Amino acid sequence: MTGGEVAGILVAVFWAILVSFLAVVLVRLAQTLKATTKLVADVTEQAVPLLADASATVRSAQTQLDRVDAIASDVQEVTSNASALSTTVASTFGGPLVKVAAFGYGVRRAMSRGRQDAPPAPDPRTVIVGRTVPSARRRKQKG
User: Fold this and answer.
1) Per-residue pLDDT tens for 61-81?
2) Is the pLDDT of residue 143 over 50?
3) Which residues contact 134 (CB under 8 A, 6 or more apart)?
4) Is 125 left (phi over 0), alpha (psi -120 to 50) or beta?
5) pLDDT (tens digit, 9 = 90+) per residue, 95-140?
6) Residue 114 to residue 109: CA distance in whole angstroms
7) Secondary structure of residue 132 in the 3-state scheme
8) CB atoms within 10 A of CB 51
9) Is 82 strand, coil or helix?
10) Which one, of 29, 51, 47, lies nearest residue 39 by Cα?
C-alpha cells in the first residue's frame, strides 16, 4: 500500500467517525427537543386553568370593589344627611331648651332664696379624731 492509499483510508475513517459523532449529537438533540416539547405542553396544560382562575378572581375582586365603592358613597350621603339633621335639630330645639334651662335655674334660685330664712342644714359629715367619716359609716358606729 502506498502512502496515498493509507491517507485515503485515514480520511475515510475520519469522515466515518465524524458522521457517527454528528449522528449521536443529533439523536441527543432530538431527545432534548422532545423532552422540552413535553415539558412546555405540561406547563401549558397546567397554566391555562390557573390563568382562567386568576382572571375569574380578578373579575370577582372588581365586582366587590364596585360594591364597596357604592356602599362608601351611600355612607357619605347618610353622613351628610345626619349632619344636616343635627344642624336642623340644634337650631330648632336649641333656643327653646336654653330658655327652659334658664327658667329652671331661675325657679331653683328663687326657691333657694325663700329657704335662706330657714336655719342652715346640719353638716352631713362628722369629724372623728381628725378624720372625716361619711354618714354611712357614722350610722354604723352609732348602732
Assistant:
1) 999 999 999 999 999 999 999
2) no
3) 125
4) beta
5) 887 888 888 898 888 888 766 655 555 555 655 566 655 555 555 5
6) 9
7) strand
8) 10
9) helix
10) 47
What single-letter amino acid sits at 124? P
Q: How far is CA 68 from CA 62, 72, 73, 103, in A?
A: 10, 6, 9, 50
The amino acid sitting at 142 is: K
Tally of CB atoms within 10 A around 126 = 15
For the chain, the first-to-last Cα distance in angstroms comes to 148
Length of the chain: 143
Cα–Cα distance, 73 to 82 (Å, whole number): 14
Handedness of CA 50, 55, 59, 61 (dihedral sign): positive
